[in-house]
Every structure is written in C-alpha cells, then in structure tokens.
Amino acid sequence: MNIRNSLYNDGNDYPQWMIQKGKNVKPGPNPDPTPEPEPGPEPGPEPEPTDPIETLDISETVDGNNMTITPTGDTSTLDHYNVNVYGEG
C-alpha cells in the first residue's frame, strides 16, 4: 500500500495535489454554505442637530505678560465656552 492510500484507508489512489500538508483532502460534495447573517436592529431616530457655534464679543485686559479675556455677551445660556487666541505676541 502506498502512502497516499494509507492516508485515507479507503483503497482509492488520490492524486498528489489532493494531499496537502498532511490534511485529508478528499473529493466530495462542498460543505454547507455559510448561513446568511441575522439582520441587525432597526436604525434609531436621527440624532438632533447640534447648535451652531455662537460667537461672543470679548474684552481684553493686559497686565504685564498676562492677558485676561472675558466674554461681554450674554453667557447665561451657555454650559461652557472656549477661547481661541490667534496672533503674535
């Protein structure tokens, strides 16, 4: 008995290309196809749009090397505000 037959023990002489790195690759029907994935949950409602960025007027106070920037507009409706400073100095 040759090596190819001893791999399968079924008496058939399979071609060398069907013996791959010690795995038993036998001719036969294809395995069951991969089942379709389950559909996901329905999409939720659209998120509410965020408020546009509001620009505030500011006042500047310079004391030596320190600058204090204070909004002069109405900030009572804001949770927080960010100050971006551009320029040389």
Description:
- With 89 residues, the chain is mostly beta strands.
- It has a domain at 1-28.
- The protein has one helix at residues 3-8, and strands at 19-20, 23-24, 58-63, 66-71.
- The chain has a two-stranded antiparallel sheet with strand order 1-2.
- The relative contact order is 0.10.
- The model is unreliable at 1-5 (pLDDT under 50).
Rounded to an integer in angstroms, the radius of gyration calculated over CA atoms is: 37 Å
Classify the helix fraction into a percent range.
under 10%
The helix/strand order is HEEEE
Per DSSP E runs of 2 or more residues, the count of β-strands stands at 4
Oligomeric state of this protein: single chain
Q: Average pLDDT value?
A: 67
Task: List descriptors.
two-stranded antiparallel ribbon; 4 strands; mainly beta; two-stranded antiparallel sheet; 1 helix; disordered N terminus
